[in-house]
């Protein structure tokens, strides 16, 4: 894997169609973002939804105006229609196709949102010597629907989806300290311990992603997850919505350390 | 209770003998400190013990030189021999008397150490809206011996004593964030959840202090405790050691906020 590839160089490969894969593990040290593109009538309400629910929906960048597909604040020459390896098209809340660029779907009233992703805080945890079980076991992080209500904004509403990483309590305390520095990539965990306390009935059967091993002496630690806005968008049923395909993110020029508040 | 009494005014009452009580709840907003006075031959090793074990033994002030009983860095005109309401005298590791000043015990080779105390972080937690169970139930905080070894320094060694406050997980996460700002008053918790994981066999029978109620949905949260150095001193058996009497602290002129690193 060409770990020394710059974010700009990777985006150029993506734009040219020579890179169409998962971005996990590429451009270590740089922020990767979740994408949501909505027409303006829905975008205004979605912006408020994110503002009201910053832990699951941390905005790290958006179109300066409706129709604007260049995102200079996130990196050099970023064209959000072409610089993500794989996109999903939702019509009336249903997935209808998966494509490698969205130039033909772009409309003059569209607004692109980039939301922080857990890759950034996982990198900070690993740098501190903590183990991330889903990475060790080479599976997707387990994610669960909870009974923690989001604040509603217009047609956007729902409950919080969480990701889970098992840890020994002392490591969980350290993880809470580290993640508190990164509010724009979900911040500190929402909960640890008893899954039922937040409405999770079976920790071994996640609603999204894969189950991971929880060892003796470990507790499950739960973070607000970027799947939360996706679920809210599906229930809002906009006529069209474009997202990244899971794991196929926008790789920005922002160093992860830029997201640290301290 | 004269809550508006300044630390200096309270210390003057203490020095004159008109105040000999518990300092808990007095001079809200100001740092209170645990006292340990040792002869130089033991003080050098104790200083190293504190340096090696900063979570249970956070030094906030000490004599500038052996024999120095004035502590100007901690407040106006502080004479550590007279400005604490009640002292305990230990000889060869055994408690031999309790007195209201220690002028007659003071020796030219003595070194006074002031260690941070949980009052400072409890105040920050309460200010944030969290409940401190031992305060609600008007008892001493429960404290437990653990199997977490301290690093040894000369004759000083032992295991960590912890204090425990039960909380819901979301409140515990907030408490970890707040206490992380206060490393010189024990800092973030050491552990939460299963007491047996740190060698506590019965959470309902603390080794020091009083048991408190742990409600459904709460987990015990454990902080390093200032009783740790007391236990280490007892086992080191110095010929003489002077401490404050529990709850009868040095009230300094330092605002609690001064101890925050962030």
UniProtKB/TrEMBL annotation, chains A, B:
Its EC number is 4.2.1.-. The keyword Protein biosynthesis does not apply. Keywords: Lyase. This is Putative hydro-lyase ADIMK_3183. It is an enzyme of class 4 (lyase). Belongs to the D-glutamate cyclase family. InterPro entries: D-Glu_cyclase (IPR009906), Putative_hydro-lyase (IPR038021), UPF0317 (IPR016938). The keyword Lyase applies. It holds the Pfam family D-Glu_cyclase. GO terms for molecular function: lyase activity. It comes from Marinobacterium lacunae.
């Amino acid at each position: 894997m060409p770990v020394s590839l710059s974010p700009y160089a990777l985006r150029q490969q993506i734009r040219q169609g020579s890179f169409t894969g998962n971005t996990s593990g590429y451009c270590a040290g740089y922020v990767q973002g979740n994408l949501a593109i909505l027409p303006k009538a829905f975008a205004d309400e979605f912006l408020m939804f994110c503002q009201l629910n910053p832990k699951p929906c941390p905005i790290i960048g958006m179109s300066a105006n409706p129709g604007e597909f260049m995102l200079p604040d996130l990196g050099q020459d970023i064209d959000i229609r072409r610089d993500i390896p794989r996109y999903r098209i939702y019509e009336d809340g249903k997935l209808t196709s998966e494509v490698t660029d969205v130039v033909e779907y772009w409309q003059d009233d569209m607004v692109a949102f980039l939301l922080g992703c857990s890759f950034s805080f996982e990198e900070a945890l690993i740098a501190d010597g903590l183990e991330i079980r889903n990475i060790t076991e080479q599976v997707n992080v387990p994610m669960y629907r909870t009974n923690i209500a989001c604040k509603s904004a217009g047609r956007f509403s729902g409950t919080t989806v969480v990701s889970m990483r098992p840890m020994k309590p002392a490591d969980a305390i350290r993880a809470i300290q580290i993640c508190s520095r990164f509010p724009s990539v979900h911040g500190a965990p929402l909960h640890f311990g008893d899954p039922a306390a937040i409405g999770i009935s079976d920790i071994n059967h996640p609603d999204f992603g894969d189950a991971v091993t929880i060892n003796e002496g470990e507790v499950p630690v739960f973070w607000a997850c970027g799947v939360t806005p996706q679920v809210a968008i599906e229930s809002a049923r906009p006529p069209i919505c474009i997202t990244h395909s899971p794991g196929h993110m926008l790789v920005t020029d922002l160093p992860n350390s830029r997201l640290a508040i301290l």
